[in-house]
Amino acid sequence: MMKKKYLKLFAVFFLVLASLFVFNEYSAQTVLRIYDYQTKEIYVEVPAKEGDKLFFGWIHSWEKIPWHEYYHIDASHDLILDTIAFPAFGAGIPENKGTKVWIKDGMIYMGNINQVFHEFTWINSHFATRDIKLNGQLIARGATLPEHTRVNLAIVKRRYFDGREKHQ
């Protein structure tokens, strides 16, 4: 008699646990996340999906010229570098990236790059890091992220029980 009671209790516990697991998996949302490399503190988190376009603008450290990077998100949630643009050549600027080159509005564009990034990491600068946009919408600027901090940008799955704490 006691054995059946424990068996029923175990079955109920297992069903509740399995239901929570299924809920956690089905509640998952793909997000673009910018976070502290070391502490994992989240600074920016916005919904993202396959096909979304990411713009990352920054200032070249030596040449002091704007550098624009254009990415898309693929089915594996990787960032695919499609195009780069800058106004002039100089130290550290590639002369042959991608398979297509054109000039528009004073900027040199190199396209069809198709370089895969699972995520990327940089030391943030209020001066050098400019706009970060998703589908044309501004999501961060260098000035809104901590100065001289190593940060990551990645496309990740956020599940319901992952926690949702954000830096204010």
Please write out the topology.
Blueprint: H1 2-26, E1 29-36, E2 42-47, E3 53-59, E4 66-73, E5 79-86, E6 100-104, E7 107-111, E8 115-117, E9 119-123, E10 129-134, E11 137-141, E12 150-158
Antiparallel strand pairs: 1-2, 1-12, 3-4, 3-10, 4-5, 5-7, 5-8, 6-7, 9-12, 10-11
Can you give a write-up of this model?
The protein is mainly beta. It has one domain (29-162). The protein contains 1 helix and 12 strands, in the order αββββββββββββ. A hairpin with a 2-residue loop joins strand 6 and strand 7 (107-111). It is elongated.
In short:
Helix content is 15%, strand content 45%. It is elongated, with a radius of gyration of 22 Å. By secondary structure, it is mainly β.
List keywords for this structure.
mainly beta, eight-stranded antiparallel β-sheet, 168 residues
> What share of residues is helical?
10-25%
Give me the count of strands: 12
Order of helices and strands: HEEEEEEEEEEEE
Q: How many domains, in number, for the residues?
A: 1
Largest sheet: 8 strands, antiparallel
Radius of gyration, taken over Cα atoms and rounded to an integer in Å: 22 Å
Quote the distance from N terminus to C terminus. Answer: 56 Å
Overall body shape: elongated
Count of helical regions:
1
Structural class: mainly beta
Task: Report the average pLDDT across residues.
Answer: 86
Task: Please indicate the percent range of residues in DSSP E strands (runs of 2 or more).
Answer: 35-45%
Unreliable runs, pLDDT <50, ≥5 residues? none
